[in-house]
Each structure stands twice: as structure tokens, then as C-alpha cells.
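REQUEST FORM: STRUCTURE PREDICTION
Request ID: SP-0412
Submitted by: Lab K.M.
Chain count: 1
Length (residues): 216
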Amino acid sequence: MRIPQHIAVIPDGNRRWAQAHSLGKEQGYQYGLQPGLALLRQAKAAGVKELTFYGFTTDNCKRPPVQVKAFANACVQAVQLLAQEGAELLVLGNADSPCFPGELKAFCQRQQVGGGGIKLNFLVNYGWEWDLACLKDAPPERRGRRQIYGGIHSADVSRIDLVVRWGGRRRLSGLLPVQAVYADFFVLDELWPDYQPQHLENALQWWSRQDVTLGG
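STATUS: Completed
RESULT:
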């Protein structure tokens, strides 16, 4: 089976899952930690070379403070768990904002953790406007593909082959617009805390049947 080099994961549905289980919305994020760990291990075993998790966006910080605190804390715990697995880890997002957890600033430069391995990106307080802000004043002669890619905050993240989104929503929600420009998009109706290995297996099998031309 043909395997995508880079998979991006949108782990949506934590709040809806919490409500369905008679919990407060803010309690759902904790139940997404173990699924992330399981998916990382499964992706590594399948031969995926790069994996991106969408933690939270700058727009998510408009939610009630109790939810913002909960998902920020969950992202800290998620990175700490993932860092024990062996990866080349980068936490990417606006670290100058008060919404960015201070505990994660040490990971804002890519570093080897747990012995190294898969290239692992975790988006925390990420916003596409923040990512591309450096381009607004770029002269026309610096707006070619190579110049654009080299100038954005996410320049160390490669092109995405496959985006997998849990929770049934059919939108990118601002995920890495430059890298996702030719990505295939697989949506699961199951909520993220209900992750099962078959979910990723289904996505991989589906992608292996796609005709990837990159516009050619």
C-alpha cells in the first residue's frame, strides 16, 4: 500500500464528546490525549515520515476562559507525552501571545526527543494570518514559490499529502494553508476521543487509491 509522507491530523469533536458523556465542554480535551499517542505510534509503524497535530488556533482563544485554559493544558500534556516517543519535534504557533503556554516555548525550535525519529509538528496557538504575516510587505519579485515558502513561520514543515479530520466537519480551519494546498482530505464522523486504529487505516487505504498529480 502506498503511504503518504506527511499526514496532518485535525482532532475535532472533544467538546461534543464531553457533552454526550454528561461532562462539561472543557473536560473533553483530556480524553484526546491517549488517542494522539496511539495515532503517533500507528503512523510510525506504517512508515509515515512526518505528522502534524492541530492543537489549537488563535481563533480558539475567543472561547470561554475555562475552555481556553483546558485545551492549553491538554496541549502541554500532549506534547510531553509525544516527546517520550521518539521524534524530531517542533511546536509551531505565536509564542509571543499570552495564549501560548510557557512550558512549550522550549520546543519552538525543532529538536530531537526520545531518541529522534519521525518529524513531528504540533500546532499551538497557530493562526494562518500569523504564519503568512511576513509576506504582506514582500515586493513582487519575492513572491515566487520558493521565496514565499522560505519566508513563512512554518517553513520547516513540508507539503502535506493527507489531512485527516475527526468530528464530521468538512473544513481546514486555517490549517497550514501553504502546505495543505494539494493535500487530499479524509473526514471521519467519529469524534476524536473515540479514535480507533481502523480510522487511520481507512484513511491510509483511501489515500493509496487516489490519483495524486499535484496539478500535473
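NOTES: The mean pLDDT is 93.
Reviewed by: T.R.
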